[in-house]
Amino acid sequence: MIANLPEISMTQTKAGPDIAAGRLPEDAYSENFSDLHPLLEQHEAQVEADRCYFCYDAPCMQACPTSIDIPQFIRQISTGNPDGSAKTIFEQNILGGMCARVCPTETLCEEVCVREVAEGKPVKIGQLQRYATDHYMSGHDETPFSRAAASGKKVAVVGAGPAGLSCAHRLAVHGHEVTLFDARDKAGGLNEFGIASYKSVENFAQREVDFVLSIGGIELKTGMRLGDNIDLAELRATFDAVFLSIGLGGVNALNKENESHNGVLNAVDYISDIRQADELSQLPVGRNIVVIGGGMTAVDIAVQKKLLGADDVTIVYRREQDRMNASKFEQELAQTTGVKILTNAQPHALVTENGHISSIELERTVSLADGTLNGTGEILSLPADMVFKAVGQTLVRDDLDATIALEKGRIVVDADRKTSLDDVWAGGDCVLGGEDLTVTAVEDGKIAAESINAALNA
Amino acid sequence: MADLRTNFIGIKSTNPFWLASAPPTDKEYNVVRAFKAGWGGVVWKTLGEDPAIVNVNGPRYGAIHGKDRQLIGLNNIELITDRPLEVNLQEIKKVKRDWPDRALVVSLMVPCEEANWINILKRVEDTEADGVELNFGCPHGMSERGMGSAVGQVPEYIEMVTRWVKQHSRMPCIVKLTPNITDVRKPAEAAKAGGADAVSLINTINSIMGVDLDEMSPSPSVDGKGAHGGYCGPAVKPIALNMVAEIARDPATHGLPISGIGGITTWRDAAEFMALGAGSVQVCTAAMTYGFKVVEDMIDGLSDWMDQKGYTSVDQFVGNAVPNVSDWQYLNLNYIAKAKIDQDLCIKCGRCHIACEDTSHQAITSMVNGERRFEVIDEECVGCNLCVNVCPVENCITMEPMAAGSIDPRTKQVVEKGYANWTTHPNNPMAAKDAAE
Ligand SMILES: Cc1cc2nc3c(=O)[nH]c(=O)nc-3n(C[C@H](O)[C@H](O)[C@H](O)COP(=O)(O)OP(=O)(O)OC[C@H]3O[C@@H](n4cnc5c(N)ncnc54)[C@H](O)[C@@H]3O)c2cc1C
Ligand SMILES: Cc1cc2nc3c(=O)[nH]c(=O)nc-3n(C[C@H](O)[C@H](O)[C@H](O)COP(=O)(O)O)c2cc1C
Ligand code: SF4
Ligand code: SF4
Ligand code: SF4
C-alpha cells in the first residue's frame, strides 16, 4: 500500500510539514468518493432516452471517437431493450462501460448533440450509455460476441490499458490467439491506476477487464515489462504481429532545484495510490497543496486531495484558464469542490525546510499575441506541504528498441495504427497525434486489430 | 372577462365544462367536489335498474403512455353505476337542490321496453334534475345485454327509445352516441327523428390496449384473460372531432345541438369542439388523470382567448368552423404551398430530410456545399406537410402559399388565380361535362 510515496513520518515534529492521514470523519470518505454520476434509475433513463430525436446522420455519432450508433442505442433503451442497446455500444466500443464514466462528453458526443445546440441541454448520452452497459453487465458475465474459427495466428499485445484491451478483444473475435502482456500486476492501465476514483467506483475497472477477457483466446501475462523481461525483437520473432499500447510510463519534471525533496510528488503516482488504497483514511494528506499543471491529471489530483481533507488546494497553471486542457466541466468540478485555480503563474522555486517542501515561489506570466509565454518577474509565494507535478507524462524510450520510429517522443503510426515496422502496430497514449483519452485509446486498439486481421488474412 | 354562462337546450350552467357520465360523477361526494372546483355541470354516472350491476374486482383500466408516462389513451371495462338506484336518486336530488346554478343531467340505460323507461323517467323527474342523457354508447358488458351500444348501433332502436322518453317526460333529452359505427350521421338522424333535444358524442371506442407478452393475455389482464374495453382520452379527440363535424354539417342534422366529448384536456380542445358546433363539452379522462382542478385553466384559458378574439359569449363562436369543413373534392387544387425552413430555428436534426427522402418526395437536402444543411428543394416539394409534422422545433418549417401568377418550379406551370377543384379536373372521369359537349 502507498507504495510509490516517499517515506513520510506519520508522527509529526513541530517544525515539520503538516501532513497526516485520516483528516476526515470515517463516513466522509465513502461519501466523498461515491459515484460522481450515479446510475440512472429506469424511469430517468426512459425520460432521458425519450429526449433523443433519433437524428439522421447524427452529429453525436460523428463526434464519438468510436462511432457508436448513438441514436440507435438510445432508441433501444426507449423501446425497453437495454441489452440490445448495450450490444450496439459494445459493437463499436467494448469498453463502453468505462467510456460512459470517463469520457469528457461535453467536448465529444454531447457537445454537438442537437439539443445542446438548441437549448444548451444535450441528451445525457454518457449516462444513457452507462445505463445500458451496466444493465448488460449486471446480467451477463460474458461479452455478447463469439469468436470466429481459430486462425492459427498469434498476436502479442503489450500493455493492458484501454488500447490493449480493445485490440486484444477484437483480435480474439477474429479468431486469433492473443497474449496480453503488462508490466504491472493488474491489467486495466490507467482505468485501474489513473482515472479519478469517483468516476469508477466499486472496482469497475477490474470487472470490465474480466468482461473483456471472457471472450476467450486472450492469455494475460502480468509482471512482463517490455525492455525488461521481454523485448520487441523477441516478440516479433515469436508472434505473427505485435500491438504496442504501453501508454506513457514517465512523467515530465519541473526541472527546478529541490525537486527530489520530500513532499514534491508525481500526481499520477499518488492518484494510483488512491485507486489502490484499501483505506482512504490511511493516505497522507497535507494542509496546503499546490498542483502544477492544467490538464485532467491536475484536476483529478486537486479534487481528490480536497476530498481527502486538505484545507487549501491550488492548481497553478501557466496560461489563461480557457487554455487549460481540462474540460470546462472538469474545471467547474474542481471549483465547486473548493479547489482554487491560479492562472498565469509558473513555478519559480521550490522552498524546503529540513529536506521537506514548505512553500513554492511562483512567477506571474503573460501570453503574447504570438502565443509565446513570458515571465513578468513578479514573484508570489504559496505555502505548501505537498507539491504535485501534473505537467504531462512521457513515453519511456528505453522500453522500446531503436528500430521503431519515434517523433516528439511518441511512436509514429499511420491511419491503420501501423508503425514503421511491418509487423508492429501501436495505439493509445504512446502514439503521436492522439488525444490522450480512454475512448481514443479504445478506437486505436479497434482500428489496429482490424488492420492486423486484414494483414494476417492477406 | 368573457361571459362563459351557457344555455344548452334550456339547461343552464356557469360554464360549458361538464363532467361526462363516468366515475367522476358516480356519487354525491365526487360531484360536490367537482362543483366546488368550478365545473359547470355534470352528467351523472349512468343509472340502471336494480339489482345493480357488478364490476370486475380486478383491474378495469388500461392505458397507453407517451413520453414521461404522459397518459395519452385510457380504456376501461367498467359498467354503469354499481350502486342501488334509490341511493343515486336521493343524492341527485340533494345535489341539485344545493347547486341550482349547475347543470345536472342524469344518464340512463335500461332494457328496451317502454314500461322500463316510463318507470325510471318518473323517478328521475322527481329529483328535479335538469335533463336526461340516454347512454346508447357503452361498448362492453351492457351491449351483451342488449343495451348501450347494442341499441346505439341500430338507428331504429334509437328513434324508438328517444320517442318514448320524449313522450313520457318533460325533461330535455340528450342522446349519447357510440363511435363504434360506420356512419355516425345515421344514429344522429334517428335521435333527431325521435325528438331528441341534442346528441352528445363520443362515447368510448372498442379497444384492446395491449397484450401482456408474458401472460399472452390482453391487458389489463383479469386472472389471465382480457376483454375489449372502451377507449378514451387525448388519443380519441381527432375521431370525436370528425364525428361532431359530420353531424354539424349534415343538412339532415345541422342545427341539432351537440354536447362534444372525447379527449378534451385543455381549453383549446374545448374551443375546437365548440367551433365545430358543440354547445357544451364533457370531460372524463382529463379529470380522471389530473383531478378536478384541471377545470380552472379550462375556464381561464377559454375566457382569455375569447377576450383576445373579442367574443363576449360562447354562442358567438359555437359552430363558426362548420362552414369550413369540406369534402375532399371541393378543396382548392389551385392552392399551392411549399415548405420553407427557417435556418435560424433549425437545429439540424435531419428528421425532415430522412422523412422526405425515405418516404416521400426527396425534396429536402442534407448537405449544401459540403455542409450539413437542410433546405427545401422547391422543384421537388409537393407541399405535403410531412416535414412540418416531424420537425421537433415548432414553427421551424412553415408552409408558404405561392402567389397567383408565379411559376411552380415543380410543375413549371403558372399558379392559377381562381378556385378549381376535383369535380371539374380534366383527370376526373366523372368531371362535370363541358356545356358544349
Ligand atoms: C490521472 C489521469 C486521469 C485521466 N482521466 C481521464 C478521464 O477522465 N477520461 C479520459 O477519457 N481519459 C482520462 N485520462 C487519459 C486516459 O487514462 C488515457 O488516455 C488512456 O488510459 C490511455 O490508454 P492506453 O491503453 O494507451 O494507456 P494506459 O492506460 O496508460 O495503459 C498502458 C498499460 O501499459 C502498461 N505498460 C507500460 N509500459 C509497459 C512496458 N514497458 N511493458 C509492458 N507493459 C507496459 C502499463 O502498466 C499499463 O497497464 C486520464 C489520465 C490520467 C493520467
Ligand atoms: C371508467 C369510465 C367509465 C365510463 N362510464 C360511462 C357511463 O357509465 N356512461 C356513459 O355514458 N359513459 C361512460 N364513459 C364514457 C365517458 O363518459 C366519455 O364519453 C368518454 O370517456 C370520452 O371522454 P374523455 O375522452 O374525456 O374521457 C365512461 C368512461 C370511463 C373512462
Ligand atoms: S464512448 Fe464516449 S464519446 Fe463515445 S458516445 Fe460514449 S460517452 Fe460519448
Ligand atoms: S444529436 Fe442528440 S438528439 Fe440527435 S441523435 Fe444524437 S443524442 Fe439524439
Ligand atoms: S426537422 Fe426541423 S430542425 Fe430538424 S433539420 Fe429539419 S427543419 Fe431542421
Structural class of chain A: alpha/beta
Record the strand order, biggest sheet of chain B.
3-4-7-8-9-10-15-16
Largest sheet of chain A: 5 strands, parallel
Shape of chain B: globular
Description:
The complex is a heterodimer of chains A (458) and B (437). Chain A is of the alpha/beta class and 458 residues long. In chain A, 34% of the residues lie in helices and 19% in strands. By secondary structure, chain B is of the alpha/beta class. In chain B, the strands form seven sheets. Chain B has an eight-stranded parallel barrel, surrounded by eight helices. Chain B has a four-stranded antiparallel beta sheet with strand order 5-6-14-11, with no helix packed on it. In chain B, β18 (367-368) and β19 (371-372) form a beta hairpin. The longest helix of chain B is centred in the C-terminal third of the chain and has 16 residues, at 294-309. In chain B, 43% of the residues are buried. At the A-B interface, α2 and α8 of A face α11 of B.
